[in-house]
């Protein structure tokens, strides 16, 4: 191998869920929303010729509409190319010490990848036997904290009082609460932003706003931390968000009625689905997200995952300690969930 190979950064990349090219499948593997964006987004008439122009580097229209929506100042909002981008920028910006950052042992697996990529030391306190966060494990010197609430892939929501305890016991480090799924259940940490100067809340348009394809995410915090994020972002890439995303994202925020309606449809389907698979001997962890984490009494999760895939139904399987007998099943339409339930019923009967 030529000497240049030593100069190449070696990384163990994040492995995203499969995006099959075949559209004739039931896709319950990457927590997308089945209902599509608001009609306001569909009505956008974009002058394609304007694509010759760079987008607004400050994304001010989207920032302003999000600030208004959440009742904060525009200086408290940072937007990025999906919450993955916002989180990666947050790791780069806020986790810049020799002390380890902390996140749960079972959580969004991109956190390990960014920590490795950016050479940030990290430790992963174990969740308890019910997959709950043990808040006391975070009351110690550290270089920062990040966790999703609700957690992924478990879907478990951590009471806002516990979130506040973690934030208030860590005044010298920054706490990032990744709220990718909060619209499907639980109380947001946004209400704590004015009270604590070490809190960053991250959100996405990919799940509750049904716009994963546009890649829009944002962070809300105090102006000091948002400026720090922008300083890092502009040092990295001057124009991150594209014009169509900025225009359509802004329209989406303006349609709260549709947003609430589709979120409550997903939640109702989730509750129905959990009940529907109970008689098939599945148990689901209590979910506050747009997916459930389910395990079967007898049949290995990996086997069901493969059989479902063979039947063109995609769910998610993680070959990892403690969760390798669970399937993460995104909530689709009622019809899709009925078809999946029917598949499971037949599979178990014929096995
Ligand atoms: N955080 C969590 C916990 C997630 O599960 C996901 C989805 N993969 C993300 C962040 C990233 O979502 P996006 O980049 O689409 O906003």
Automatic annotation (TrEMBL):
Signal peptide: none annotated. One of its GO terms (molecular function) is histidinol-phosphate transaminase activity. It holds the Pfam family Aminotran_1_2. The modification N6-(pyridoxal phosphate)lysine is found at residue 207. Residues 23-342 form the Aminotransferase class I/classII large domain. Keywords: Amino-acid biosynthesis, Aminotransferase, Histidine biosynthesis, Pyridoxal phosphate, Transferase. It is an enzyme of class 2 (transferase). Its cofactor is pyridoxal 5'-phosphate. It catalyses: L-histidinol phosphate + 2-oxoglutarate = 3-(imidazol-4-yl)-2-oxopropyl phosphate + L-glutamate. Its EC number is 2.6.1.9. It comes from the Bacteria. Gene3D superfamilies: Aspartate Aminotransferase, domain 1 (3.90.1150.10), Type I PLP-dependent aspartate aminotransferase-like (Major domain) (3.40.640.10). Pathway: Amino-acid biosynthesis; L-histidine biosynthesis; L-histidine from 5-phospho-alpha-D-ribose 1-diphosphate: step 7/9. The keyword Transferase applies. Homodimer. Belongs to the class-II pyridoxal-phosphate-dependent aminotransferase family. Histidinol-phosphate aminotransferase subfamily. This is Histidinol-phosphate aminotransferase. It comes from Coprococcus aceti. The lineage of its organism: Bacteria, Bacillati, Bacillota, Clostridia, Lachnospirales. The gene is hisC.
């Amino acid at each position: 191998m030529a000497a240049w190979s030593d100069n190449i950064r070696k990384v163990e990349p994040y492995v995203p869920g499969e995006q099959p090219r075949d559209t004739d499948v039931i896709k319950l593997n990457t927590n997308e929303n089945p209902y599509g964006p608001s009609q306001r987004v569909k009505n956008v008439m974009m002058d394609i010729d304007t694509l010759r122009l760079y987008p607004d580097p400050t994304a001010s229209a989207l920032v302003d509409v999000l600030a208004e929506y959440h009742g904060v100042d525009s200086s408290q909002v940072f937007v990025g190319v999906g919450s993955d981008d916002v989180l990666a920028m947050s790791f780069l910006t806020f986790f810049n010490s020799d002390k380890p950052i902390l996140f749960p042992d079972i959580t969004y697996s991109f956190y390990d990848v960014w920590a490795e990529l950016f050479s940030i030391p990290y430790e992963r306190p174990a969740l308890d036997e019910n997959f709950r966060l043990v808040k006391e494990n975070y009351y110690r010197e550290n270089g920062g904290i990040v966790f999703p609430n609700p957690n992924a892939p478990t879907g478990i929501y951590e009471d806002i009082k516990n979130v506040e305890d973690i934030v208030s016991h860590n005044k010298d480090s920054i706490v990032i609460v990744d709220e990718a799924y909060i619209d499907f259940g639980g109380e947001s940490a946004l209400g704590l932003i004015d009270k604590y100067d070490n809190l960053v809340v991250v959100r996405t348009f990919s799940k509750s706003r049904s716009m994963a394809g546009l890649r829009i995410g944002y962070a809300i915090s105090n102006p000091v931390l948002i400026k720090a994020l922008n300083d890092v972002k502009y040092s990295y890439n001057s124009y991150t968000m594209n014009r169509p995303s900025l225009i359509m994202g802004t329209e989406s925020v303006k349609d709260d009625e549709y947003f609430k309606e589709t979120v409550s449809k997903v939640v109702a389907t989730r509750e129905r689905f959990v009940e529907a698979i109970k008689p098939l001997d599945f148990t689901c962890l209590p979910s506050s997200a747009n997916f459930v984490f389910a395990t079967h009494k007898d049949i290995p999760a990996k086997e069901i995952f493969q059989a479902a895939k063979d039947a063109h139904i995609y769910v998610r399987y993680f070959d990892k300690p403690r969760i390798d007998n669970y399937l993460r099943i995104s909530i689709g339409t009622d019809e899709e969930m009925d078809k999946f339930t029917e598949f499971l019923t037949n599979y178990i009967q014929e096995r």
